[in-house]
């Protein structure tokens, strides 16, 4: 068996303690089918010194949860790992993908995303202006550095902005299709489509994550038009990626819009699509 390192959360952060061991177990079971052993190590142990990772033939940052709450150290770590650590996805990708402003750069390359206003620090005036700009009665306000819908707000016209995300943020018109069609994720391993999962919120909710009650369903294949957007997105990114999760949703006219390109520590939804385990392990083994 060959050891590969898997980055895990800061052990001093109790918010993930009950979740990540189960994710590690599933990833470990998948990797074992390719003769690989997953060795967990907190990402926060290697911020300024990468020597503890240098001995591994491969480092996978797949459970590096919490980076969005410690972003300065995360960016420092990405610079540290760029020298002498065999990490996939590459540290440079882990850096730029941690700030959702990358969506704006992809839009400049022709990728369809929701209409977006980029704000340094959102105020009530920014929200009121966005309602008028987008001619909508509902908005979503989210931090540019976030994860798992952290500090993401849905506001209706007339609502006051409370608990606003501090620092750089983005404002978008709310897509009501999230409630009816959900969000669809296309998972790629080694550049090849592995599986497709549709995620839907519970009634009255707009967040599709499982911690908010969201339900996940594996699809037999990508809906019409979804694969084209995903492949266009990966081509625009143009990076050497071991894995990618491309999240998208249709607008009211049925046009697919890119919501996120998750390239750091995405949930692969292997519980909903267990056939992806072997494909992931094979992609990792191919890189070794």
What's the SSE blueprint?
Elements (H helix, E strand, L loop, with lengths): L1 E7 L11 H13 L3 E7 L16 E2 L10 H11 L9 H6 L5 H7 L8 E3 L4 H11 L3 E6 L9 E4 L12 E5 L3 H4 L2 E7 L2 E9 L14 E5 L6 H12 L5 E8 L5 E7 L13 H12 L1
Parallel strand pairs: 1-2, 1-3
Antiparallel strand pairs: 4-7, 5-6, 5-7, 8-9, 8-11, 9-10, 11-12
Helix pairs in contact: 1-8
Task: List its salient traits.
five-stranded antiparallel beta sheet; alpha+beta; globular; 288 residues; 24% strand
Structural write-up:
With 288 residues, the protein is an alpha+beta fold. 26% of the residues lie in helices and 24% in strands. The chain is built from eight helices and twelve strands. It has a five-stranded antiparallel beta sheet. A four-stranded antiparallel beta sheet has the order 4-7-5-6, covered by helices on one side. It has a three-stranded parallel beta sheet with strand order 2-1-3, with helices on one face. Helix 1 (20-32) packs across helix 8. The model has no long low-confidence stretch (mean pLDDT 95).
């Amino acid at each position: 068996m060959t050891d590969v390192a898997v980055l895990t959360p800061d052990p001093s952060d109790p918010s993930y303690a009950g979740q990540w061991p189960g994710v590690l177990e599933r990833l470990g079971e998948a990797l074992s089918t390719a003769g690989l052993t997953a060795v967990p190590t907190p990402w926060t142990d290697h911020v300024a010194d990468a020597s503890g990772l240098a001995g591994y033939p491969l480092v996978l940052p797949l459970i590096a949860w919490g980076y969005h709450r410690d972003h300065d150290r995360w960016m420092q770590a990405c610079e540290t790992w760029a020298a002498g650590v065999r990490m996939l996805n590459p540290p440079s990708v882990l850096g730029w993908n941690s700030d959702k402003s990358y969506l704006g750069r992809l839009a400049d390359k022709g990728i369809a995303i929701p209409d977006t206003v980029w704000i340094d620090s959102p105020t009530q005036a920014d929200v009121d202006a966005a309602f008028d700009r987008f001619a909508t009665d509902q908005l979503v306000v989210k931090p540019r550095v976030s994860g798992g819908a952290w500090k993401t707000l849905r506001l209706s016209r007339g609502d006051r902005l409370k608990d606003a995300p501090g620092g750089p943020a983005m404002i978008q018109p709310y897509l009501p299709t999230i409630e009816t069609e959900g969000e669809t994720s296309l998972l790629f391993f080694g550049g090849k489509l592995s599986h497709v999962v549709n995620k839907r919120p519970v009634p009255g909710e707009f967040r599709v994550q499982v911690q908010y009650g969201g339900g996940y369903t594996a699809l037999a294949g990508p809906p019409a038009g979804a694969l084209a957007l995903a492949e266009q997105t990966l081509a625009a990114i143009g990076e050497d990626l071991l894995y990618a999760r491309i999240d998208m949703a249709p607008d009211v006219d049925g046009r697919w819009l890119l919501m996120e390109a998750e390239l750091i520590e995405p949930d692969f939804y292997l519980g909903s699509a267990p056939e992806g385990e072997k494909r992931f392990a094979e992609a990792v083994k191919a890189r070794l």
